[in-house]
Amino acid sequence: MATLTARPVLSEVFWSTSGNDVWLKRLVLLVAGVAALWVSAKVQIATIPVPVTLQMLVIMTIGAAYGPYLAASTVGAYLLLGAQGLPVFAGTPEKGIGLAYMMGPTGGYLLGFLIAAYAVGLLARAGWDRNWLTMAAAMAVGILCVYIPGVVWLSASWGAALGWENWYAWGVKTFIWVDALKLVVAVIAFPVIWKLVGDARV
Fold it and tell me: For residues 64-76, b (16+ Cβ closer than 10 Å) or e, as one string?
């Protein structure tokens, strides 16, 4: 049963973050996470106004595997690179770059990524990634953290063009089932990995 007690996350089990090189290890994990987010943004289905990508799965995996602070730092670094004009987001550079792109229809989802990474990391730190039921609950929390700011932002920026009454069709319906199927992978994988490493009852 999950508790609020701080517990190790998977990255700490597979690669100990103790010792003198702790910051180097964290930097390596951060860079790897940013690279994964960059690549996953480019694997996409072109839907309007926001494309479907693999990023939701990567965000949730980073959150659960890294814990709240390293996960949030990783997503924050990714967003910072995008703000500086690197083409790390879906649709960049074709649809714009930098802050101009981030202020567009995808801006709320990008903010939601940061919130979701922290929230899922916090739940993983509490042990919610140790069994399927609580992992599914953690994924549900993560989805809400992305969709709520994403839909609010999309409605505010595109409401006049799409019609405010279409917020569900444009902001949720296009993605929710695809995202749910992707997150089933994490729901199944994390508890299995914990059992394989023999630490599921720590």
Answer: bbbbbebbbbbbb
Task: State how far the Cα of 173 lies from the Cα of 114, in Å rounded to an integer.
Answer: 22
Cα 148 to chain centroid distance, Å, stands at 14
- Using CA atoms, how far apart are residues 46 and 64, in angstroms rounded to an integer? 28
Domain boundaries defined on the chain: 10-196
Give the number of other CB atoms < 10 A from CB of residue 81: 16
DSSP code string of 83-98:
HTT-S-STTTTTT--H
What CATH number does the domain located at 10-196 have?
1.10.1760.20
The alpha carbon of residue 125 and the mean position of all alpha carbons in its chain are separated, in whole angstroms, by 16
- Please state, rounded to an integer, the average pLDDT across all residues of the chain: 83
Read off φ and ψ for residue 50, nearest 5 degrees: -120, 125
Residue whose C-alpha is closest to residue 5's, from 129, 139, 127, 134: 127
Distance between CA atoms of 118 and 61, rounded to whole angstroms? 11
Assigned token pair, 82? 């995008």
Mean pLDDT of 87-112: 88
Amino acid 200: pLDDT:
41
